[in-house]
Structure formats: structure tokens, C-alpha cells
């Protein structure tokens, strides 16, 4: 007699045996369902999913988000806006924080495809506006004093556009298309 009850030893042994059977069964089914690289290469639908995910992740990396966020202060310094570059970078950082809280709710409501398209278009437009500002400032004789707000506006617009689509959707799709 091991426990306080006469048959507790038998009950413990039965529980251990049942646990071992269930554990072996779970491991066997999980090994059957584990994804392998050969499955991705041999099945057409998984190859298509891989190509979609790779294109979206490459587009995300080539969007320039890391370069923009790394060089925020020099961008604002060269723009010559009325605000200091530190304050401007903080404003853009706050926009980044706010947009990262809003974007998960938009993904389910508007759909992934629409958000990726709108995100890419918005990022392109924001960078075009920023590039046009610097072209006018550096290569023409026009004064940029009335439009000194454009760099901070275009970078906030870029951050919002990036966070609403290209930031989250590639990794969400990878998790959905390759569950194992």
C-alpha cells in the first residue's frame, strides 16, 4: 500500500500507462503532420504559398523602412524644418507606435490583398513626395519655406502605410499558409 487509499498504487500505475499510450499516440500523429522541405517543393499549392511569402518578405525588406527609420534625424536635419530633428523623429516614432496598434484590426476587416496594395501605393506616394521636396530644395531656385511640413508629413504617411500592410501581412501569411 503506497498511498492513503488501498488501490492508489494501481491507480497511479494505470494513469502512468494511459499517459504513456497517449503521449506515444500524440508523438506519432505529430510526426505524420510535421511539414518537411520536400513537402513544400513537391506540392504545387505549397510551392505557390512559398513564392507568395518570399515575394512579400523581399518587398518588405526592399521597401526602405529600415533605412528611413535609421536615418530619420539626418533626413530632418537636411530638410531644414522648423522643428529639431530629435523632436521630428519622436513624432514619427509616436506615429509608428499608434499605427502598430491600429493595423491588426484592419487586417481582418479589409483583407490582406487590399491592404498590401494600398500599403505599397501609400509608401510609394510618400517617398515620391519626400523625393520631390528634396529635389525642389536642392536642384531648383524655389523656396521651400512654405512647405517645410512636407518631410514630416510624408514620413508619417510612409510609416502608417508600411504598418498597415507591408509590416504585418507577410509574416501573417507565412503563419497561415505554413501552419506546421
UniProtKB/TrEMBL annotation:
Alphabetical UniProt keywords: Membrane, Transmembrane, Transmembrane helix
Membrane topology designation: Multi-pass membrane protein
Domain Major facilitator superfamily (MFS) profile residues, every copy: 1-180
Compartment annotation: Membrane
Transmembrane segments: 49-72, 87-107, 114-136, 148-174
InterPro entries for the chain: MFS_dom, MFS_sugar_transport-like, MFS_trans_sf, MFS_Trehalose_Transporter
Official protein name in the record: Major facilitator superfamily (MFS) profile domain-containing protein
Source organism per UniProt: Molorchus minor
